[in-house]
Amino acid sequence: MKGHFTKRGCTYGPNRCICGKTWSFVIDIGKDPKTGERQQKTKGGFKTKQEAEAAASAIITEVNQGAYVKESDILFKDFANVWLPAYIERNAPKPGTVRIREYNIKKLLHYFAHGKLKNITKEMYQAALDDLKDQNFSKSTIESIHTTGKMIFKMAISNRVIRLNAAENAYIKRDQQTIIEFDEEELPNYFEKEELALFLDIVKEKGLYMDILIFLTLAYTGMRVGELVVLKWKDINFEKQIISITKTYYNPKNNTKKYELGPPKTKKSRRKVVVDELVINAFRKHKEEQEKLIKRFGNSYYNEGYVFANFNRHPGYPILIKLVETRMARLLKKVDLNLEVTPHSFRHTHTSLLAEAGVGLEEIMDRLGHQDDEVTRKVYLHVTSEMKKEASNKFSELMRSIA
After folding, report:
1. What is the rounded distance in angstroms from the CA atom of residue 385 to the CA atom of residue 382?
2. Which domain holds residue 14?
3. Distance between CA 212 and CA 205 in Å, rounded?
4. Which residue, 172, 147, 143, is CA-closest to 83?
5. Cβ pair 223, 272 in contact under 8 A
6. 236 with 369, same domain?
7. Are residues 116 and 58 in the same domain?
8. Which of 3, 136, 222, 267 qualifies as a cystine partner to 27, CB 3.0-4.6 A?
9. How many degrees, rounded to 5, is the angle at CA 54 between CA 49 and CA 60?
10. 41, 65, 89: which is the final residue of a domain?
11. 132-189: pLDDT as tens digits
12. Does some domain include residue 394?
């Protein structure tokens, strides 16, 4: 085999000779395609000459097959700064998604920032995921961080910056839970049927301007709050009683005038939802009230056709998601209900009530704009399993009455 193999030379201690115990090699790996200069690969630390020869042979085979990667010394933080703009250019993600990727990179930098990308091992990457789990980050957060990590290493492999993908086959540790714990902890909070009716009664009685339409719409459609606040009048088909959901709201700094419109969360999220006449009549009433306000404000009204528009400091601009959350918290204090529910809980409430009404899971997913959602599936299975138990109990009671 072509190459130079050497054993580490002797060094002298105070009283004795310390002979070298490891082997190293120097081999040619061709010319640099940019400079044309001769390139060599040096590696040491082998216990025997045979081990050194085997390692050198493997590299030479890769060189001959065109598969050899001369790894870069680039730091993880520097490559992450290269990856993010490339990811944005290639995928054109929504601003919210970019913000998530930036957050994920920040978390990964805590572990790898000043380390060379090529030196990050599978063990090191797995240890980072385990540490995030030990810090009680949620499963979805760690999954998101892991997804970003996998994309970074995949691009590094594709660009021939590194040879081994440290994120490959990494996993998130699972919690040790009993079945009872799983049922109790994993099901989200939502209104039962009677609780929803009570809440809507309180809205009618104690609600502020727009409250009744806001919470009726959330309850009767299960739409996301970000989809609700940017509904426009052109999205409401009064004759066919259909609401078209075509966009969502992005405003991370809660600046009323500096909002952005983005596409719905997924392709499936672009949808048409048929609603009850009760909801349509509430929209009609609100439209009449809003038109009076528009006349009063005149040219100072930002008239872009938003249904749920501000009416005081920035008239016409869509209301903040935070306003919906604040309004709901205010109403919950006026009634003896679970204070853990949020505007998003209406999606789970809608799922449970549709399941109770006998609507299939696929139809519910379609109405909510889900491709496949684990939480929705859990709520659906929980409700339907309870219905099966009730049916079984009724059958048992019937048989006992016969006996």
Report:
1. 5
2. 4-65
3. 9
4. 147
5. no
6. yes
7. no
8. 3
9. 125
10. 65
11. 999 988 888 999 999 999 999 999 888 878 878 999 999 998 866 544 444 444 677 8
12. no
Q: Please state, in angstroms and rounded to a whole number, the distance separating the CA atoms of residues 164 and 120.
A: 9
Q: How far apart are CA 156 and CA 10, in angstroms?
A: 40
Q: Which backbone phi and psi does 244 adopt, to 5 degrees?
A: -95, 125
Q: Which residues of 288-313 are buried (b: 16+ CB within 10 A; e: fewer)?
A: eebeeeeeeeeeebbeeebbbbbbee
Tokens for 316, please give them: 């016409």
- Phi (first) and psi of residue 274, to 5 degrees: -80, 135
Number of domains the chain is built from: 3
> CA distances (Å), 43 to each of 4, 56, 60, in order?
11, 9, 13
The single residue listed with the structure tokens 């993908």 is: 165
Torsion angle defined by CA atoms of residues 188, 189, 193 and 195, in that order, rounded to the nearest 10 degrees: 180
3-state helix, strand, coil in the chain (%, to 5): 55, 10, 35
Residues of the chain below pLDDT 50: 1, 10-18, 178-185
Least Cα distance to 294 among 305, 284, 283 occurs for 305
- Cα gap 16→375, rounded to integer Å: 70
Please measure the distance between the N-terminal and C-terminal CA atoms of the chain and give it in whole angstroms. 91
pLDDT value of residue 66 = 57
Q: Return the pLDDT at 17.
A: 43
Residue 398 forms part of a structural domain: no
**Distance between CA atoms of residues 88 and 84, nearest Å:** 6
| pLDDT on residue 63 | 63
pLDDT of residue 189: 83
This prediction's pTM: 0.61
